[in-house]
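Section 3.1: Structural characterization of target chains.
Under the original work plan, the team committed to producing a structural model for every single-chain target entering the pipeline before any wet-lab resources were allocated. The record below documents one such target. The sequence was received from the expression subgroup and is listed exactly as submitted; it comprises 129 residues.
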Amino acid sequence: MKMRLLTAAFALAGLLGSAQAFAQNAYITNSGSNTVSVINTGNNTVIATIPVESFPLGVAVNPISGRVYIGNSNSGTVSVIDTATNEVSATITVGTQPDLLFVLSSSTRGAFAALVITAAYGMFPPGSC
């Protein structure tokens, strides 16, 4: 019984002690201002505001490359954000309303990632979401 309590105490201390070290960032689109806010989820503060193209909506994260992809609906582009610098490293022209973005990835040997971009216009009937 004492061993279980000791193990549980160490596990809890490890989680609490490492929470700050493993804090992640959230990338939130601001469609009205054509920016992306970077929020430190460890302390819930905005640590950066990144200008992007017109009417950003979709967000996808590539865990392999450390890039965040932002679908800019009105400009038909995708902004690529480097998470190390929190700056736009590229802008890709893709076509009409790139609102839904997905990263398909595999962390097995020979890491692979693919960005899937779809236009959401007319995809869901009113009231279905």
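The chain has a mean pLDDT of 75.
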